[in-house]
Design a protein that fits this description.
Elements: E1 3-14, E2 20-22, E3 26-28, H1 31-41, E4 45-55, E5 60-61, E6 65-71
Antiparallel strand pairs: 1-2, 1-3, 1-4, 4-5, 4-6
Length: 78
């Protein structure tokens, strides 16, 4: 079993109609780097820094763990 943890900053942009739209997720090397990147990405609406751990050989991953949120994000990331 080969496990790995991925750290991601997921931005959300606020459209002119007032809807949040997911931007391109950006992978980071560490939890703190994902948090910093999410904070920078949040300037256009909001962002979430999260991690996921799983088994690389099977592709089975645990649910995402939210590290920190910034700005406006969808309710299901709270």
């Amino acid at each position: 079993m080969s496990t790995a943890t991925y750290y991601v900053a997921q931005p959300f942009e606020l459209t002119k109609a007032g809807h949040l739209v997911a931007g391109t997720p950006q992978q980071a090397q560490t939890a703190s780097a994902a948090i910093r990147r999410a904070e920078n990405l949040a300037r256009k609406g909001g962002a979430v820094a999260f991690s996921r751990t799983g088994d690389l050989s099977t592709g089975d991953f645990e649910d995402a763990v939210v590290l920190k949120t910034f700005g406006q994000i969808p309710d299901d990331f709270g």
